[in-house]
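Input record (Table S2, row 376):
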Amino acid sequence: MSDIPADTSASLLTTLADEISSSATLLSSHIESRRLPWPSFSADGPRQPICEDNEEVSRARTALIEATRTLHALAVGPVETTKHFCLNEIYLLGAMQVLCHFEIPQNMRACIWLRHAEMLPAVSKLVDMVKRYPDSPEPQNTAFSLEFGDTFFGYKERYPENMVKFGQFVDAFSGGSSADSAESIARAYPWETLPNRALVVDVGGGIGHISAALAQAHPHLRFQVQDFEHLRGAAEELMESKGVKDRVEFVSHNFFDPQPEPARRAAVYFMRNIVHNWPDLYCQRILKPIAESMGPESRIVNCDIVLPEPNSVPKAQDAVTRALDLTMLSMFNAKERSFDRWKELFASADGRLEITDMVGKPRMRMDSLVEARLLC
Ligand SMILES: C[S@@+](CC[C@H](N)C(=O)[O-])C[C@H]1O[C@@H](n2cnc3c(N)ncnc32)[C@H](O)[C@@H]1O
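Output record (S-adenosylmethionine complex):
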């Protein structure tokens, strides 16, 4: 019910209804003039929201979502809302779990699967986690571990097919494919300003799909993808298929260890969706060896969510980032961070590390690119 503004006077109903009408009219004109498919409930209706790259249309869509949510909450009222939440929601989740068990959902399958097969059982242990490990800095002390008897990534190592589904979940959740996402990171940072043959180290880079896209878009750069040895085969296959194997090498490396000699003084240490998966103490252990290997021209480019200040973004978007924060807690005993928390974290890993700026925002994703350098 946090969406309901303090002023619930009678006029609010009609003010919201007017806003809904004007936003819907603007969206309709846009759809008509561009001959776009109309949003519909039919199985073959458009899957993506209406035009994200037109700012006026995008603003109208956000206003429509906000106003309809608020109007709905006002019309339903607190008692019925609570009743629906207590009854409908829980059986909706149960029914989806049954459907997932029999592999029936096709659309957004990996997204629905992760929510029901892993997140839901894990979140049911959140009370236990908070009671048992109130101040634990350890990544194994999680709701996930209480349910599955292992850390999130330990469990994925035992069941590699779940790691594949996890990758598909991340793609589905960010609204595209890993190729779309990698391609948008290739455009979101001024990679072209790096010197010829400069080395980019992709720390915890998985099979290297981001490095492969960056290498294709920026032929003057070299890459080293660092991750666990068992990913080497898939990584080398990917580089071969993308035609970049001469400039992208895979190196087996544990990111808690000192950087290997050839990766010292690299131009960029790039990390995407690494640091937010770890509690502070472990983030410091990841960042410290990187800081120690940086030269005066090196920088870290970190790609993770930067939590918006409260009430600074539309409520629907804010709700997603706060839910992701709770996901990090339940799965990893970790958290999402605001810009100030990111600054504190980097400085706490090595007093010379300073976040210079938020340097870009990949399209479609909630992540931002944050750049850190060594203070002279
Ligand atoms: C959420 S995935 C992100 C992968 C990749 N950066 C991306 O954006 O697609 C986290 C990655 O960290 C790797 N990882 C976890 N612990 C690691 C460690 N101690 N050393 C190196 N890599 C690790 C995992 O194997 C996985 O590839």
